[in-house]
Amino acid sequence: MATNTAPVQPPAREYRAQVSHTVRRSVSFSDSTFVMPASIPAGALITSTQVLVATAFSAGAALTVGSAPGGNDIVAAADSAVTAAGVKRPDTATLKGPLAADTTLYGTITGGPAAGQAVVVFHYVPNNDA
Fold first, then answer.
1. Which superkingdom heads the taxonomic lineage of this protein's source (predicted)?
2. Residue 51 near residue 75 (C-beta atoms within 8 A)
3. pTM of the model
């Protein structure tokens, strides 16, 4: 085990049982940047992503999620389509396969929207076969 290594913040969420895990966060037009409330643990597979847009965001708005601030390797703007209400299921993430390290998910809302509400949900399975 490495020493003197700062833990990932927020901490990774992993239950030892063989169950699917989720991490979710509500966002609104006023959240220009946000961090998901839990990181996804090393070795986990992201099995699906959902963006549930309850109130459409103003024209020109975009929502992205990445493994680095401002990134879009998890959810690209075209996949989230937050200017229309409904459930979006982004599936073109460039971050594929088991995660190499505990991964914090960073979100960005651009375009200066004046309205909009959504819930972002990630479903994942940790590597806890042992």
1. Bacteria
2. yes
3. 0.85
Instruction: pLDDT tens for the chain, 130 residues: list them.
Output: 556 666 677 777 777 777 889 999 999 999 999 999 999 999 999 999 999 999 999 999 999 999 999 999 999 999 999 999 999 999 877 777 899 999 999 999 999 999 999 999 999 999 887 6
Closest CA to 63 of 94, 52, 103: 52
How many CB atoms lie under 10 A from the CB of residue 2? Answer: 4
User: SS3 helix, strand, coil % of the chain, rounded to 5?
Assistant: 5, 40, 60
The domains of the chain are located at 21-125
- Tokens 């963006």 — which residue? 51
> How many Å apart are CA 41 and CA 39, to the nearest integer?
6
